[in-house]
Design a protein that fits this description.
This protein is of the alpha+beta class. Helix content is 37%, strand content 14%. It has a seven-stranded antiparallel β-sheet with strand order 25-24-23-22-28-27-26. Strands 41-40-39-38-44-43-42 form a seven-stranded antiparallel β-sheet. A hairpin with a 5-residue loop joins strand 15 and strand 16.
Length: 1876
Amino acid sequence: MARLADYFVLVAFGPHPRGSGEGQGQILQRFPEKDWEDNPFPQGIELFCQPSGWQLCPERNPPTFFVAVLTDINSERHYCACLTFWEPVESTQEVVCNEDTTEKEEEADEGGQARLSSTAPAQPGQLFAPKTLVLVSRLDHTEVFRNSLGLIYAIHVEGLNVCLENVIGNLLTCTVPLAGGSQLDSVEEGARTISLGAGDRQVIQTPLVDSLPVSRCSVALLFRQLGITNVLSLFCAALTEHKVLFLSRSYQRLADACRGLLALLFPLRYSFTYVPILPAQLLEVLSTPTPFIIGVNAAFQAETQELLDVIVADLDGGTVTVPECVHIPPLPEPLQSQTHSVLSMVLDPELELADLAFPPPTTSASSLKMQDKELRAVFLRLFAQLLQGYRWCLHIVRIHPEPVIRFHKAAFLGQRGLVEDDFLMKVLEGMAFAGFVSERGVPYRSTDLFDELVAHEVARMRADENHPHRVLRHVQELAEQLYKNENPYPAVAMHKVQRPGEASHLRRTHRPFPRLDEGTVQWIVDQAAAKMQGAPPAVKAERKTTVPSGPPMTAILERCSGPHINSARRLEVVRNCISYVFEGKMLEAKKLLPAVLRALKGRAARRCLAHELHLHVQQNRAVLDHQQFDFVVRMMNCCLQDCTSLDEHGIAAALLPLVTAFCRKLSPGVTQFAYSCVQEHVVWSTPQFWEAMFYGDVQTHIRALYLEPSDDRVSSSQEVGEAQSQDDERSALDVASEQRRLWPTLSQEKQQELVQKEESTVFSQAIHYANRMSYLLLPLDSSKSRLLRERAGLGDLESASNSLVTNSMAGSVAESYDTESGFEDAETCDVAGAVVRFINRFVDKVCTESGVTSDHLKGLHVMVPDIVQMHIETLEAVHRESKRLPPIQKPKLLRPRLLPGEECVLDGLRVYLLPDGREEGVGGSGGGPALLPAEGAVFLTTYRVIFTGMPTDPLVGEQVVVRSFPVAALTKEKRISVQTPVDQLLQDGLQLRSCTFQLLKMAFDEEVGSDSAELFRKQLHKLRYPPDIRGTFAFTLGSAHTPGRPPRVAKDKGPSLRTLSRNLVKNAKKTIGRQYVTRKKYNPPSWEHRGQPPPEDQEDEISVSEELEPSTLTPSSALKPSDRMTMSSLVERACCRDYQRLGLGTLSSSLSRAKSEPFRISPVNRMYAICRSYPGLLIVPQSIQDNALQRVSRCYRQNRFPVVCWRSGRSKAVLLRSGGLHGKGVVGLFKAQNTPSPGQTQADSSSLEQEKYLQAVVSSMPRYADSSGRNTLSSFSSAHMGGHGKWSSVRASGRSSGLGADVGSRLASRDLLSTPHTNGAPPDSGFLRPQRAALYIIGDKAQLKGVRPDPLQQWELVPIEVFEARQVKASFKKLLKACVPGCPATEPSPASFLRSLEDSEWLIQIHKLLQISVLVVELLDSGSSVLVSLEDGWDITTQVVSLVQLLSDPFYRTLEGFRLLVEKEWLSFGHRFSHRGAHTLAGQSSGFTPVFLQFLDCVHQVHLQFPMEFEFSQFYLKFLGYHHASRRFRTFLLDSDYERIELGLLYEEKGERRGQLACRSVWEYVDRLSKRTPMFYNYTYAPEDTEVLRPYSNVSNLKVWDFYTEETLAEGPLYDWELAQGPPEPPEEERPDGAAPQSRRRVVWPCYDSRPRVQPDAISRLLEELQRLETELGRPSERWKDTWDRVKAVQRLEGRQDGRGTSSSLLVSAVPHHRRSLGVYLQEGPVGSTLSLSLDSDQSSGSTTSSSRQAARRSTSTLYSQFQTAESENRSYEGTLYKKGAFMKPWKARWFVLDKTKHQLRYYDHRVDTECKGVIDLAEVEAVAPGTPTIGAPKTVDEKAFFDVKTTRRVYNFCAQDVPSAQQWVDRIQSCLSDA
């Protein structure tokens, strides 16, 4: 029996001692006054009676009741039931507190209940003080307390004739039965009826099982207040030890919510701070670091705001707020979703029926109490599912004198398949679970509902999972049991208790609560105590049983582990391989080994391996020969490699006995065991693993101890005839349970004996484990501390030092024991010391937990160092002998092929090349074998990093794997620590990433020392970033170069911007007085002084006189002789050739100032004085003087003023480029400080000059020259020009919806646009016709703000938003990661690649570039000129300008034209190749920014869409993309022509003829190659002369360039042609098996072979074949191009003959104008369909438009005729005639051949041309008549020299050189016609 109430206390309001307005509680009386011995009086009760503080009230409040919970030092909970009522204050009290009244009036009401307005008139200013009756009890009977205190209050208020002292005395002496009433004899005992002597009666029901919590309705209320999701997250938070705070205005609600949450946690007990109602004075408790569940009145919500790590549940608002820094792990799926759905079924049964067409009559919802139990039942089921099978993971370490039980967490998580699960991991590590194990792990105890559930109902729960109604039925059954436990006798529950009348608290006639007589109460208590002494002590009758273990555990969700699902076949392979090893069939075993190693990724195969190896161990020893030993060790390593440190699947545990069993004899007396070869795994250095192993072994031995067949055991507990087999089946827990049952019956001596036996068992195991641990922790070579460091998993892999780590092996578990650092000082301590400390810690922990005596423990500490020392001595001998073993035969190194002039810097270091995340290399989805990992060597040469080797997988062994990239392309290098694929050892490695999309992820072989690896890194770094550009491969190649000047050393990098601008201003002031500032302008420092301001006294490299005479700046014919030389060499540059082609003027014309030309070539920059990054000759408007250019240039960044770079042949519009306009940058300072000249400031004059300049450009355009004064866009006010007018109002409409704010949104918003086209297709070319400006300036939004609008509105600003170079760099980094991830993806899927590709935003940038370019093309095509003025004018400007020219001008789409375009726009106009490619040490920090590569990608996109418009192939673009970063050629080095002249590069070709050793220019190399092979040629090239390309630019139309993704491991990248001509050289001697590494099979593998080389296209194949045949016949072989041209000519002729009247079209001009795809069409003919390829390249001059569309069907005979030489063609008559082209085309001179035999008139470009341009079939000619000259005809020719040939399709206009030859031609043609 237990006391119902321990203390009764009366607490009243008292003034605060310090006189502050707050009152405080005072205990007026307490009964009994003496403390109970077993239960002292709890301190601080007065705080809890009024949790919000003691305050006076201006009116009477109704009485309130709540129960607070106090926890004492022994974790015992005391329930304080508080009933508070209010009494008028006596005058003495009033005086003290009335000054505070006003404040108190605003205070919240204490009980949280609504205040009733006072009906009785209270005296004015009357105050009321609270008084509280408190019952303190250890039992939680809330209702009984409420009734009892209510009774006392009613007696007082109603003035009943009952003695209060008696009632209180009876209350304190009342006893209630202990839990488990059902076990007592009578109902009266189980449900105790009590009376307090006031005519009352109450029934107290005690729960049947006291381990089950009593929740009444609290759980149901909690769900009602917060909802399912919130309660679930609170549940998870409490279980994972987070802080939970409840807020409510009601104290009773707070208490209920806390009680409800605790009830949900059952069977776990909450062991942290638990305060359902926290008083205001103790709010600082909330900042405690430990977890808690606390309730606080909502009035104090503000004080809880700044708590950062507390989860706040607001009961009144129904919200749960989780701070950002707190992560609550959710329940593991599928339990989370299952629990959620069951809870919703319980809380809302209507939900299931809501959608029914005919819902059944509404079912009555269960009562609140019942619903409460149902909700608890759901959580009880949840725990049973979570912890199912937990008893199988208990280790019983001791049985006597008290059971010691440990839980094997790793095994539990592993077998449940929840190793990764955050929630369960935290729960198992928490205090609550530790309590659960110690309380419920005991094998022999009384059981409850949870034990039954987890043991017997698991199968049922699994079966019910998918049947909600069965789940609900189960929940209801459990709920009934829970309900019955709380209310065992529902019939008896009849209360009769006096209650005060309604509103009794408002009556005036209150007398204060009387002072009670202590003596009376004490006397009643003493009487009862005396009675109790006589009675026997109440012993709780417990029914103990063996706790059932339940079924073995299963995975919570049957997951199949991807590709490693272990089929029986795989296990069979493992078994076979092991039997081959032990039978000595090594070759067979070798064949199976790769398959075994692959299979061992799966769990079942690893278990199978351990099992099979066990079978081959006899008497704990198995001696193997060397090969067998190697095989076994290798398989063990492979097994252990995938074990985590916890070894959750018990693989390491199974192998532990084996590593000390398998051994080999090294020499007499020296044996090497397998453990010395499998130490490299993190599991061995994990204390938790060793503890679990130790406890498991101890359990086995203890079980064996009690299963020994001894006489007394048989006699006492078993039938004699019991079979041994039953013993084997009994688990350790069963044995322990049996022993615990017998323990009380044993004699003391017997008990002592058993305790000693158990202790010695534990002790002997501890010694055994000390030995085992020393085996696995001490490295074979104890001097080689690296092993220990890495195995400890603590090595700082970044530091390659060889010293020991400064952290201990136990560092990872420092939290579990003392945190003393294991290795105090890296240098002084040794391996042995570290291992001894590690073992000692382990021994301390396990022995203390297992109850080993301290003497034994001391003995162990003495033994451990000796064990370690002995073992070290043994290992020394083993190490010595193992070194004498013959080394394992490693494959010979394959030497890479080198380029001429390429030298090896570091010879091969043995490495393993590991998979880099591209699937194909490891035989992924693309099929094919696993080429990687490969074993070989890495070589470093002056040009490349090269890996050559062979795959480790023997099935692919004969293939050679090569991966290389230029040293210059290296973008990132990092050290890694990886496992070697063969031996699974942890080795140092390197990961090298290149911008050519190769990645070398290498693990160094163990023979490579760390110093060699370090040397490799240093050399690589030195080659990647030479101090000077002359150190690069392109310069050192083939020349022991004599340095002209020593390269300058850059000073300390990066002076501050302040000093930079200070120097600039100083320099500027110096030069202000001069008329022309020629130097001291802010240029980016050239490459040799990057990062330092130009020194003040530094002369320019090229001697320019300081003050230039005016004559040198005004162009005149009198150039100095030295200048003339420069001029002549400048004229030869690409720019000039192109300017002449475009008709933009020649140098001679510019010098003689021919006024007819609108533009001229100006030599103003020939000394690079105005702009260093521009070429020497520039195209400027004719009307602008050279000296004005100087001033114009100041307005632009880097002085890059607008110059013309292209002119449209049709519309005569020009394209200009410049740098962006100056913002408020450094140059703004100059403008501000310049001394004003008489008229206006210099800055002002500059911008006027700039306006004049733009005006001159406009005037130079033919159609605007006459109307320059006309206002073309008069609708515009000038305010619109500043970049926020119509261009920016455009945003959303335009070319594609994704446009956003770029490209001034394609000039939309006005009536310029036809309807927007879908898919980003260009609108018709006429879309820009209405009023338009003569010049559009495309600039960055930010810069255009300062530009003045053109007063005449002839130019217009187009503000666009573009990306910067740094965004290109960042985007490229992500693109590299997406294409070559670096590590294999966990679940490779195309989606993950596409996702990372999208994140890189690379295609979005390509989209923007194409979009802007197409916009410019449209503007130019419509006749407006365009100035592109973005950033500094050398990155995005260059990209856009080049793309525009490529799209507009077919010339640039030829090989020669593209070269010219790159030389002109990229090289001459100063794209900073060295800076963007980070080619020298100075550029290292800026990193690689692939602006040029991005341009090539854009060209590739256009090429894909218009494959017939380009003469060059895709391979050509990849070739340039590779070599612009490779530094093999000098072409793409340096930042401008100026720098190239400085180094003497620009004109070096002249004069010196180098040998054939090496091409220094990439163009020269391309030319040479093109003569030998058609690799750069596009066979489908068939351009239309006038075609302006308008590509689609939407991201959906763009493709990822295969340059980024393809790889050929057979020979490395294909872009060094000399290297791609064969496999690497075989090793010096023949390989042992006699076979050469190459094979004859033709299997084409993805990722390995180069498909173009292995499977050339049909045309290349035929050309190769032809060459071969000619060589065999001994003829000199013809060049491929000549052959190809002849084939095309013949093809065209045949097309003219055969194709008459064929309906289907072969030739391309039939394709719609705006988009032509590949020229391959399937043609239906009479003989069936034939595939034919269009080879025509100029059908526009075909004989007639329709005949040019005829399809050609070749007869078999003509297949041979195509190879006849040109001389054998029939030429009856030939000569030159001018021919007028088709409609709107000019007159051109052609070479005509009249062929009588074929009855044709053919024409060629010129006499020696073998390629026929067109054919007129004489059969179609109707008449030949004299003609008249038309527009554009040759001027000097006589009119009579013209004649026309009229055919059935069109009229041809011809013109001969003179009249006689015209007559001759007419006669010849007439005679041919008459012959026919």
